[in-house]
């Protein structure tokens, strides 16, 4: 009893408290977006969103809903900070990454508000570790302004068939060209590398495709180096949704099922490669 | 050209590509009437591999001979009716990158030539309706052909690939060369220690096998041959994956060793590796030359320019150009473990004593000659120059002075009046050999031939010297073999 009131007193100073029985539920999701060192964390009543960006062209977000936490308390409307995600991941995996059943790491994460560090308590098998990670001033994150109303083409498919296609992409190609169309070849991923061009076609009637809603034929090119990190999210996920809007912006949403059967989402937004000789604005 | 490979054979095809990729950097593709030939040769031209896939390997096989497309026909008429190309191994590997995935998902593989775009198109039709298309760039090239006569080798061993894999697994992965020592009683595999100042400081590995372990063990000539282990590993990886027997044909030091795989008549593979021309440490020899540079670059020219006579592997030739061999080979084709060993062989300690002349052979057809020619990049040390070799048909006339041939006058081609004069320096040399693949110095021998036709195509890596060029006289007087 005294322990719980003591806890209560300490916890009173924190703006955000989140408890997870299995830290891996969080670390796996964060690994899916770990292609840069720094990440911006947003905490709202709905949960935690972690954002990583690169070159102002690609943005990855991972969503940890409040529902997946055993306890989620937010004393303010929202809390935002920037943090070194590499360090955060290393702390979350401090007990090693063994996948023995039953050997889960419990996590308690606390944040005291603007300027205070992020504190992690991790416990496994009776051993307790506490980590304090400095937080930084949050940067403005890009708003890709990707709204569902502007979506022209949308395909939802199972991730397995795309996994090896993405991991075997010809890295000598600068771009990945995505063609989505209501006619053949429906969905085509193309690369243009040193050896020649490669095309992977996915028909709409394939049993791998769950939903196919394409209204217009669109071909867009995206920098392959920017999209390559999305393979991590793809390998973890069960399903992927590919959407393009009228500007050619790409939205990839991955549905990831964690160890406890809960569903989390990771999304990638990417801006298209513009042709240099285009005179008119898009 | 167009062929379609069924699902279960795509795995074998992919494995063949992986095996070839470990040997050479370019894949030579040639659709022939009797099947699709995939060949490669390593950069130092000391290893050659050829996979021949019979038409039964494919669902559909069209070597492009009868085409309705006029454009294609014109093209083919230019090329003497056959399409030959080479693609880089890297680009081919990008198609067959992940073998487990291919095994699981690919239902069919189509290979087609797209003339209009100049691309070789590989299409993988996978499960769930997924199609993967690879449009690969290629280079037109001449046929890559090795000249070797495995049926004439006195030594033949047939073994399960598993046995050889296990044997080879005993050697360190960093081991470059291995020596195979055979006698009727046993076979021994040893690691080859190269130019080590203190051989006792280096680990020596040796393993022996009894003839009973092999499916066929025919030894006509006790010998030891040293060849590259890396290539053998690649061969055995393929053989093991496809549960093949491996047939090994070899003769002696300096002669190539041939590994042959026979895939239930739907495909066959031949691998020809050069063997070290210098006997290993167990043999006492006075023929060792201090090699100034590393041996591995096979195409280094020998100190003397020689022409060697080789035969194309056709029945008509085999009997002719190796006259001296035939009678010695009688009784060699038995499968017993006790090989016959005519005493004639015991004298043949050195491979250099045979002199085979093309002119002696039945002149009904111009014999083939393999010549080794420097490509002009002569350094001060003559043995640093690399050489190219090619095969052409011609007659050889010999001018001798005393007992030794002094100059060869080679007439190229029938009716062609161009000749090549090849001067042999009359040094203290007591042997001249015209036996294929026997260099005098401690070097691996190149046995390749870049072109079986006149070289009009310079798409080859090495520049070919025109046949009318007179070969430079050797300047290295130190060599005393």
UniProtKB/TrEMBL annotation, chain A:
The keyword Nucleus applies. Keywords: DNA damage, DNA repair, Nucleus. Gene3D superfamilies: 3.70.10.10. InterPro entries: Cell_cycle_checkpoint_Rad1, DNA_clamp_sf, Rad1_Rec1_Rad17. Coiled coil: none annotated. Its main location: nucleus. The keyword Hydrolase does not apply. It comes from the Eukaryota. It is found in: Nucleus. Belongs to the rad1 family. This is Cell cycle checkpoint protein RAD1-like. It comes from Saccoglossus kowalevskii. The lineage of its organism: Eukaryota, Metazoa, Hemichordata, Enteropneusta, Harrimaniidae.
UniProtKB/TrEMBL annotation, chain B:
Residues 281-368, 443-481 are annotated as: Disordered. It comes from the Eukaryota. InterPro entries: DNA_clamp_sf, Rad9, Rad9/Ddc1. Residues 315-330 have a biased composition (Basic and acidic residues). Residues 281-290, 331-353 have a biased composition (Polar residues). Residues 451-461 have a biased composition (Low complexity). It holds the Pfam family Rad9. Belongs to the rad9 family. This is Cell cycle checkpoint control protein. It comes from Saccoglossus kowalevskii. The lineage of its organism: Eukaryota, Metazoa, Hemichordata, Enteropneusta, Harrimaniidae. The gene is LOC100374654.
């Amino acid at each position: 009893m005294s322990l719980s009131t003591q806890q209560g007193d300490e916890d009173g100073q924190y703006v955000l408290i989140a408890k997870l029985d299995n830290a891996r539920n969080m670390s796996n999701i964060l690994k899916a977006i770990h292609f840069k060192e720094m990440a911006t964390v947003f905490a709202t009543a709905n949960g935690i969103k972690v954002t990583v960006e690169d070159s102002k062209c690609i943005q990855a977000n991972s969503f940890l809903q409040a529902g997946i936490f055993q306890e989620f308390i937010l004393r303010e409307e929202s809390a935002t900070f920037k943090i070194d995600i590499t360090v955060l991941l290393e702390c979350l995996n401090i007990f090693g990454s063994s996948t023995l059943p039953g050997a889960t790491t419990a996590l308690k994460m606390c944040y005291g508000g603007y300027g205070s560090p992020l504190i992690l308590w991790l416990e496994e098998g009776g051993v307790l570790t506490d980590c304090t990670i400095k937080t930084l001033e949050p940067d403005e994150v890009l708003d890709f302004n990707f709204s569902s109303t502007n979506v022209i083409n949308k395909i939802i498919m199972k991730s397995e068939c795309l996994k090896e296609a993405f991991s075997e992409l010809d890295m000598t190609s600068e771009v990945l060209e995505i063609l989505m169309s209501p006619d053949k070849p429906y969905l085509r991923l193309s690369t243009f590398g040193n050896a020649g061009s490669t095309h992977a076609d996915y028909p709409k009637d394939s049993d791998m495709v769950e939903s196919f809603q394409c209204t217009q034929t669109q071909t867009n090119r995206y920098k392959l180096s920017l999209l390559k990190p999305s393979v991590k999210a793809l390998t973890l996920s069960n399903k992927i949704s590919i959407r393009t809007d009228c500007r050619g912006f790409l939205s990839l949403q991955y549905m990831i099922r964690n160890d406890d059967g809960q569903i989390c989402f990771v999304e990638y937004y990417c801006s298209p490669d513009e042709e240099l000789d285009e005179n008119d604005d898009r | 050209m167009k062929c379609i490979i069924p699902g279960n054979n795509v795995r074998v095809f992919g494995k063949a590509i992986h095996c070839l990729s470990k040997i050479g950097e370019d894949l030579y593709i040639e659709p022939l009437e009797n099947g699709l030939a995939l060949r490669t040769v390593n950069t130092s031209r000391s290893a050659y591999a050829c996979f021949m896939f019979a038409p039964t390997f494919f669902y559909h096989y069209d070597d492009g001979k009868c085409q309705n497309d006029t454009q294609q026909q014109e093209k083919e008429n230019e090329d003497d009716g056959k399409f030959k190309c080479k693609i880089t191994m890297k680009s081919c590997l990008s198609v067959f990158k992940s073998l487990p995935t291919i095994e699981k998902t690919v239902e069919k593989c189509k290979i087609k030539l797209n003339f209009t775009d100049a691309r070789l198109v590989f299409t993988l039709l996978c499960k769930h309706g997924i199609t993967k298309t690879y449009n690969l760039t290629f280079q037109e090239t001449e046929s890559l052909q090795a000249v070797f006569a495995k049926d004439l080798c006195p030594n033949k061993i047939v073994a399960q690939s598993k046995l050889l894999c296990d044997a080879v697994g005993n050697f360190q992965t960093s081991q470059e060369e291995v020596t195979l020592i055979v006698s009727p009683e046993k076979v021994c595999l040893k690691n080859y220690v190269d130019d080590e100042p203190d051989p006792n400081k280096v680990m020596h590995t040796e393993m022996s096998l009894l003839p009973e372990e092999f499916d066929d063990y025919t030894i006509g000539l006790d010998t030891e041959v040293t060849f590259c282990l890396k290539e053998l590993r690649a061969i055995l990886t393929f053989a093991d994956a496809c549960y093949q027997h491996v047939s090994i044909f070899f003769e002696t030091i300096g002669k190539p060793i041939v590994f042959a795989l026979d895939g239930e008549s739907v495909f066959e593979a031949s691998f020809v590796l050069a063997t070290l021309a210098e006997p290993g440490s167990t043999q006492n020899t006075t023929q060792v030359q201090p090699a100034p540079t590393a041996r591995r670059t096979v195409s280094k020219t020998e100190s003397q320019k020689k022409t060697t006579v080789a035969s194309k592997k056709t029945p008509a030739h085999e009997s002719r150009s190796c006259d001296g061999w035939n009678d010695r080979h009688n009784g060699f084709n038995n499968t017993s473990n006790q090989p016959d060993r005519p005493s004639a062989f015991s004298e043949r300690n050195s491979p250099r004593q045979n002199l085979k002349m093309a002119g002696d052979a039945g002149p009904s057809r111009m014999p083939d000659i393999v010549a080794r020619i420097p490509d002009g990049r002569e350094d001060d040390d003559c043995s640093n120059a690399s050489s190219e070799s090619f095969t052409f048909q011609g007659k050889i006339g010999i001018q001798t002075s005393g007992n030794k041939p002094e100059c060869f006058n080679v007439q190229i081609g029938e009716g062609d009046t161009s000749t090549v004069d090849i001067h042999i320096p009359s040094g203290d040399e007591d042997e001249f050999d015209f036996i294929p693949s026997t260099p005098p110095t401690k070097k691996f021998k190149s046995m390749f031939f870049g072109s079986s036709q006149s070289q009009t195509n310079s798409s080859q890596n090495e520049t070919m010297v025109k046949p009318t060029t007179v070969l430079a006289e050797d300047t290295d007087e130190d060599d005393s073999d």
